[in-house]
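I hope you will forgive my troubling you with a question about protein structure. The matter concerns a single protein, recorded as an amino acid sequence and a row of backbone structure tokens. Please examine both parts with care and let me know of anything in them that strikes you as inconsistent. Here, with my thanks, is the record as I have it:
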Amino acid sequence: MKPGQTLWTKEQLILAINLYSKIRFGQMHANNAEVKDLAGIIDRSPSAIARKLGNFASFDPKLQARGVRGLENASKLDKQVWQEYMHNWDQQFIESEVLLAQKKNTTIEALNPIDEEDFEPMEGRQAVRSVMVRLNQTAFRKMVLSNFDNKCCITGIDQISLLVASHILPWSKDEGNRLNPKNGLALNCLHDKAFDRGLLTITEDLKIKVSSLLLKSAVPSVAQNFAAYEGKPLNAPKKFSLDAEFLKVHNGTFKP
């Protein structure tokens, strides 16, 4: 360690990996506004934050598979925090969001604003539960879209307002992976609905599979939007690999 430098604390690393999970790979540099914001919060330089994000990248198997090595000299504590985060994603992410809100003297609700147009007012416990569900969905959306470079992983559409963070394992089926980006696809609204209805799936080797119910259609728009992608490779995620077991479960709901 160079003179004047101080060791990273676990709290600082938790906030750094929270940021790592939410921003696109190409944005992990010192000039990024979110990097600068975190630097001010934890009293580190933007360059130090960027280097730490690079240290985390060195552990990421998806980046390793792409030949991206990340930065060397990661510490044992870096690796410990990475493993804790990856093996218990939902709990660790929520705890890191709570910590970030505390550091910013704000609330989780303020960090993850809900689209009021889609929010139906409720009362009592049901209202609290509804707000928390929507907060989780907002955070999940940001992580999943950044994982696919803010583009539909089938069509490449990059109009964010048309994109959905689609769960591979449904929200109601796996409470432990509701916020895990390995359980998410960035899809446009049309393909999200087809995926949800089992008319479209992704194989374990990341190939697009379209139901014959769509392939047999004589409607030109169906051919253009679905048949054209049959058997094509998915636009692969940039950081977090999709979980093969999650894909396998979804394949079981597919309507051939």
About this structure: The chain has two domains: 10-111, 127-251. Confidence is low (pLDDT under 50) at residues 116-131.
